[in-house]
Amino acid sequence: MKYRPALRVLLYSIVSLSSLLLFVNLLHAEKPFESLPAGGQRLVALEKTAPDRLNVNLGGGKLGQKKVLDVDHSAFSQSLQVQLTAQPENTWDTSISTVTTEAVNKGDALLIGFWARGKPLEGVGGGVAEVVFELNGPPHTKSVQYLVETPSDGSWQHYWVRFRSIDDYAAEGATVTFQTGYLKEEFELAGLEVWNYGDAEFESLPHTPLTYAGRELDADWRTEADERIDQIRKSDLEVKVLDADGNPIAGASVRVRQKSHAFDFGTATSSQMIVGDHEQKSKYCEVLLEYFNVATIENGLKWMSWDKHPGNQPQTLAAMEWLNENNIAVRGHVMVWPGHRYLPEWIKTIEGQPETLSKVIDGHIREVGYATQGKLRDWDVVNEIFDNRDLTNVLGDEAAIHWFQEARRVAPGVDLYYNDYAGLVRGGHPTAHKDHFEKTVKYLIDNGAPIDGIGIQGHFGALLTPPVRLVSELDRWNALGLKIQITEFDVTVPNEQLRADFARDFLIACFSHQAVDGIVTWGFWESAHWEPKAALFDAQWNPTLIGQHWIELTKKRWWTDEKMTTDEDGKLNLRGFKGTYLVECNGVTEALTLGDERASVTLRLK
Fold it and tell me: What Å distances lie between residue 123 and 152, 220, 468, CA to CA?
C-alpha cells in the first residue's frame, strides 16, 4: 500500500486532483446527441480527425497492423481499424492519436465524441481502449483518462467524454490518444470529434454515464453467486432441547445467535486513532469493533515508518495489543517493500555492498518480526516487486525467497503473504503487471519459499471489473493453491452511487468465491482515510452508501440470528453462516463454532 504522495495515485490509476479517470461500458452508453449545444469550437480540425489522417503507433508494425475501411453507417462512411496481434508491455505502447489544432485554457470545458467497436482476438468480450487528453510532451500532464470496453456483440457504439482542462495548452500542444495496448484485439474507431466549450456550463454537455456490466439487480450472476455463497459459506446446525430427565421438549423457543464470522471482513487501521490522543478515538474504536473482525496496521510496520519514527513503534505495538485483546485478528504490512522510495533513505548508501545490504534486510525482518511475535496472524512479507526492484536488482530474484525464509524463522505459525496490485483491477484484462504477479508467486512456490497466501490489492479507479470477470480472475488465482486475501479494497470513481454499487457487487463476487478468505477495506472513516470519498463512514460517522452496503451484507444478509421452535422430537435444523454462535433457550446457553462440517448442540433445561 502506498503513502499519500501522488505517486501512489498514479500507480493505482485512481482519480486524483490532476486526473479525472472515467470508465464506460458500452452496454449502457447514451446515443449521440442529434445536435450539440451551441458555442463549441472544434479543438481538432475536422480534416485531422479523418480515419486516414490519424496517427497510429503499432511498434513499427511489430505489434499489429492498421486499415482504413469503408463502412455502411448513417453517421460516417469510413473507419480506422487496428489489429493488435502482440501484447505490448505497456498500454500506451500502441495507440491512435491526433494533435489539437487550437489552444486551450485551464478550466475550459472540453468534449470528445467518437464511435467504436471491437473484439479480442482471444476470448470473449469487446475491444478496449483508453482515451487520454494530455500535454504533447513531457511531463505529459493529463486532463482525462477514459477507459472503454466496446459491446461484446461487435456492434458500433457512440460515446461522449466531457472534462475540464487542468492546464493551459498551446495550439498543437495537446494530444488526443486512444491507447489500445490492453489486449490482443481488433479495435475500430470512427466519427472522432473534439470540441472546446470554454466556460460553458459543464452539465450542459453530453456525457456517457459510467457503469459496468452486471450492475443490474436482476443480472444472472447474482443468482449464481448466492448459490455459491449458500454452498461454501454456510453449514448445517441441529439443535436438540431436552428436559431435566432427558426427554425432548416440543415447541421450545430457541435463539441461534451468531457472535463472529469465519470470513474476514477487515479494514486498515490507524494506530494513532486506536491508542493515541485523538478526540474521535472512542468512536473510532467503537465502530471498528462493531463492523470489522480483522485489522491491518496501515503504516506503522512499514520499514520507513518503523525506522524513521521510533516513537511510533510503542504506539503501533500497543494498538496491536488492543486489537488482540478485543479479538480482532491483525495483519502485518509490510516487511520488505523493495523500492528505494519506500525504504529508509540510508539504504541507498549500502546499495553497492550486496552482502551488507542483505544482512541489513535480514536484520530488519528479524527486528520487526521479533517485536510483533504473538501479535499477528498474517504478514505481508514482500510487496509489489513489479515496479519496486531496487533491492532485487542488486540481490537477484532469489532474495525474495530468502526474505520469506527469514520471515518464517521469526514468525512461526504466522501466515506469510506476497502482496501486489493488478490482480483484479482494470477490467480484468491482461496486463504485464498481472502476468508478473502470477509468475512471482509461482517462482516463490517452485523454489521452496514458505509462502501461505496471496494478497491481492483492490484499488479500483478508472476501469471497473465486471463481477463475472472478477469470478473468472479469482479462478485463475485459485489455481495457484494458496490462500487468498483481498488486502486493500477501495473504489474511487467519481459518482457516489456507482462507487457504492460496485463495492456491493465486488463484495458479493469475492464472498461467493471459494478461494477468498477475506476482504480488507483500506480504511473506513472519511477523516482517517487515504481516499476520503471511498470511506464507509463520513466525517460525522454516518454510513456512506458504500458503508450502508457493507453493514447490510456483513451484519444482516450474511449473518445468522434466528428464533425458531423445536419440533415434536425436540429438534430444529437450520443452515447458518460459518462462525461462532450462542444457542439459547429458557436461560440455558451453549457456545459453539460452526465450521465446514455439520454441527449439533444439545440444550438440557433445568
Answer: 11, 20, 14
C-alpha–C-alpha distance, residues 189 and 156, integer Å: 9
Residues 6+ apart with CB under 8 A from 311: none
Query: How high is the pLDDT of residue 123?
Result: 78
Task: Find all residues with CB under 8 Å of 120, minimum gap 6, and list them.
Answer: 126, 127, 183, 184, 185, 186
Cα–Cα–Cα angle for 315, 316, 320, rounded to 5 degrees: 115
In terms of residues, how long is the chain?
Answer: 606
Nearest in space to 586 (alpha carbons), one of 572, 569, 603, 564:
603
- Which strands form 95-99's sheet, in the order they lie side by side? 20-25, 142-149, 128-135, 174-179, 95-99, 55-57
Q: Which residues contact 108 (CB under 8 A, 6 or more apart)?
A: 164, 165, 196, 197, 198, 199
| SS3 labels along 108-129 | CEEEEEEEEEEEECCCCCCCEE
Does residue 19 have a pLDDT over 90? no
Which triple of cell numbers denotes residue 468? 463475472
Whether the pLDDT of residue 68 is over 90: the answer is yes
Q: List, in sequence order, every beta strand (DSSP E) within 246-293.
A: 253-261, 264-269
CA distance 344 to 299: 14
34 Cβ partners below 8 Å, 6+ apart? none
Q: What is the 3-state secondary structure (H, E, C) of 45-68?
A: CHHHHCCCCCEEECCCCCCEEEEE
Say if CB 348 and CB 340 are below 8 A apart.
Answer: yes
Q: What does the alpha-carbon distance between residue 309 and residue 329 come to, in Å, rounded to a whole number? A: 25
Rounded Cα gap, residues 108 and 523, in angstroms:
35
Per-residue pLDDT, averaged over 77-87, amounts to 95
How many C-beta neighbours within 10 Å does residue 43 have? 25
DSSP reduced 3-state for 565:
strand
Residue 424 C-alpha cell reads as 483484479
Cα–Cα dist 70/292, whole Å: 58
User: CA-to-CA distance for 513 and 476, rounded, in angstroms?
Assistant: 12
Structural domains of the chain ordered from first start: 6-204 (2.60.120.260), 230-258+560-604 (2.60.40.1120), 264-545 (3.20.20.80)
**pLDDT score for 330:** 98
Helix (H, G, I), strand (E, B) or coil at 384: coil
Alpha helices in 372-452 (DSSP H): 390-395, 398-410, 432-446
Q: For residue range 501-527, list pLDDT tens digits in order.
A: 999 999 999 999 999 999 999 999 999
Q: Is residue 580 over pLDDT 80?
A: yes
pTM, to two decimals: 0.86
What gap in Å lies between CA 122 and CA 125, rounded to an integer? 9
Lowest mean pLDDT among 7-16, 111-120, 431-440, 585-594: 7-16
Name the nearest CA neighbour of 82 among 210, 101, 93, 433: 93
Place of cell 423445536: 566
Tell whether the model's pLDDT for residue 134 goes beyond 70: yes
Collapsing DSSP states into helix, strand and coil, what is residue 580? strand
Sign of CA pseudo-dihedral 131, 133, 136, 139: negative
